[in-house]
């Protein structure tokens, strides 16, 4: 039956992310009854993850807070001194005014009382009208639903485990305000089965099924993303699920045959031919590649950009290599992903929906015309 599944107690993740890994690990079964681990990072707990993700930034933030607290304390002391001076001046003025205005006219008091009674009657009538308006508004109020965050289903590279990627996932949660799901391929250290191209595809299908069934996330809210070997797994999953919201490929290759450094793939037998599947995928696609990639040359990414029929402006990073885009060039990666997720994809899907509505209206009109012609005949 393949390799035995390693229990959670044996696994010792790196320092700083041990509780994150253990508390968010799930096990999913593929269609050929193999168990694979899955890590789930929801957006609603982003503050908890963030403290593990960027320790340098937190130190700067603490120093900045201390400086602000000192400034606030100084401002408070100045305000207290000003208040004391103002109070002393007010007391002097009151004493002077009381000494001058000892005698008060009775006529003024009577006029004040009559004015108060009139104002009370007016306020009662106004309050009654206001309550009627509020009741009418409460009946017409509408409940506003919160927008659910998007979910990124990430396919990792070769010679990599999902338990090495929690900081990467946490940064995605914090920077992009999305849910992140990491899954491991069959035959890798903490999963069952043998390593093969087919088993990689089955693992991705099982992870997508888990998001649909267990978490209740529709495909229209899921963005598939893959890095290196994971780009081939992501393209295969996108070709089988045309309802997916978007597709992101990092350091993608045409096929393993055309890669000079074969260690990017699992075995020499497995082809992972992206160039065949790319023209059949109509999902909006973003390609990201380093111009100095030493394993998969950038010409692979440029050729795939031509093969995919529905691509956006790619991100070619000048000095980036195969494995340093996420951490060294994050200042370029995250803004481009934000633009893709929150601007380009919504516009594309709005246009799609409007086109579908126009097509349906045309069909209804043609059906009516045909029925009228049949009635005349």
TrEMBL record:
<feature type="compositionally biased region" description="Basic residues">
    <location>
        <begin position="63"/>
        <end position="82"/>
    </location>
</feature>
<dbReference type="Pfam" id="PF05677">
    <property type="entry name" value="DUF818"/>
</dbReference>
<feature type="compositionally biased region" description="Basic and acidic residues">
    <location>
        <begin position="83"/>
        <end position="97"/>
    </location>
</feature>
<dbReference type="InterPro" id="IPR029058">
    <property type="entry name" value="AB_hydrolase_fold"/>
</dbReference>
<dbReference type="GO" id="GO:0010008">
    <property type="term" value="C:endosome membrane"/>
</dbReference>
<dbReference type="GO" id="GO:0008474">
    <property type="term" value="F:palmitoyl-(protein) hydrolase activity"/>
</dbReference>
<feature type="region of interest" description="Disordered">
    <location>
        <begin position="63"/>
        <end position="142"/>
    </location>
</feature>
<dbReference type="InterPro" id="IPR008536">
    <property type="entry name" value="DUF818"/>
</dbReference>
<dbReference type="GO" id="GO:0005886">
    <property type="term" value="C:plasma membrane"/>
</dbReference>
<protein>
    <submittedName>
        <fullName>Uncharacterized protein</fullName>
    </submittedName>
</protein>
